[in-house]
What we know:
The protein is α/β, with parallel strands linked by helices. The chain is built from four helices and six strands, in the order αβαβαβαβββ.
Amino acid sequence: MKIPIGLLPVVLTLLAGCGTEASSVAPGSATRTNSPIRVIATVGMVADLVRHVGGSDVTVTQICGSGVDPHLYKATRDDVRSIMSADMVFHCGLMLEGKLADTLERVGEMKPVVAVAEKREKLANGGEGMEEATVVIEHCTS
């Protein structure tokens, strides 16, 4: 399930509201409590964005460390475990995480996967289509 970044605040709010009060959960139940939303982010800029928007409602884990080329990064077994245990996954998109594309696509069938950058088509020069990379970030105010 791919979600446009403009819906990030709405998605985070809805997921935060999906928790159940701890007092109403039966012992041993797998029902989610009001704990922070577990988010995986691929690169530092995306992780920073999610931390800024989500605040104390999210716990963000970044899988590509600093100094690592995200174009060439391939998910380890531990990365896949972390991704599968997360509530949501955020990545840059535009094939920045090229070797992670298949993993992110498969995970997107099971949980929200958000690309913070996306391709848009722009008409130019008499209707000829030209791809334009656009980063979509919704400005949030409190």
